[in-house]
């Protein structure tokens, strides 16, 4: 049995986490989880009202993702999860699940703001983008992960992530390609 692999696609709201994670999961045959689905309703209500989350708000959200990744890993299932993971302390909680790597989607404020203005199906208002950038801590050299610019196509971005993190498709994905 191959050891399960786990990648958190991270970055500020509007950076393309869901799009990149979906394509990665399809290419690799891994299980995908949208981090937003782990938020308690109180967090969604707070963000919808234009209020940024604080560390206390984020703790149960991060623990829920960690526990889900840990459970999937115990089953030998590789996962892709979207999560802003803006601070090292947040990533530390996620790493408690076992070996987790991070793919940090990076872009400038103007590009991401423009993307957020076009979204109609998300509870995170563009007004919170500044607080996300203010909270963001770049990956440290000792964190297992990489940064990739959102300036490329989805295919280029996912290709860079797969190559840089040396990700391997699940056997089921390999069988589909044959």
Automatic annotation (TrEMBL):
The keyword Transferase is annotated on this UniProt entry: yes
A GO molecular function assigned to this protein is: gluconokinase activity
Going by the record, the broad EC class of this enzyme is transferase
Query: Can you tell me which residues the record assigns to a coiled coil?
Result: none
What InterPro entries does the entry give? P-loop_NTPase, Therm_gnt_kin
Instruction: Quote any Pfam family the record assigns.
Output: AAA_33
Q: What is its EC number?
A: 2.7.1.12
> Keywords in UniProt for this one?
ATP-binding, Kinase, Nucleotide-binding, Transferase
Q: Kindly tell me the pathway this chain contributes to.
A: Carbohydrate acid metabolism
Q: Which SUPFAM superfamilies match?
A: P-loop containing nucleoside triphosphate hydrolases (SSF52540)
For the keyword Endoplasmic reticulum, the answer is no
Catalyzed reaction equations: D-gluconate + ATP = 6-phospho-D-gluconate + ADP + H(+)
The family assignment reads: Belongs to the gluconokinase GntK/GntV family.
Question: What name does UniProt use for this protein?
Answer: Gluconokinase
């Amino acid at each position: 049995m191959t050891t399960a692999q786990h990648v958190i696609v991270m970055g500020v709201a509007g950076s393309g986490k869901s799009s990149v994670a979906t394509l990665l999961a399809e290419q690799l045959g891994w299980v995908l989880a949208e981090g937003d689905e782990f938020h308690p309703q109180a967090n969604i209500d707070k963000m919808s009202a234009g209020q940024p989350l604080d560390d206390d708000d984020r703790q149960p959200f991060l623990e829920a993702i960690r526990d889900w990744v840990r459970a999937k890993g115990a089953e030998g299932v590789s996962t892709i999860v979207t999560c802003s993971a803006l601070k090292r302390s947040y990533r530390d909680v996620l790493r408690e699940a076992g070996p987790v790597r991070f793919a940090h989607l990076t872009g400038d404020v103007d590009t991401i703001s423009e993307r957020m203005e076009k979204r109609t199906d998300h509870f995170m208002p563009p007004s919170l983008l500044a607080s996300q950038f203010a909270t963001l801590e770049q990956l440290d050299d000792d964190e297992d992960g990489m940064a990739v610019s959102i300036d490329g196509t989805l295919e280029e971005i996912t290709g860079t992530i797969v190559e840089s993190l040396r990700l391997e498709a699940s056997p089921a994905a390999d069988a589909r390609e044959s």
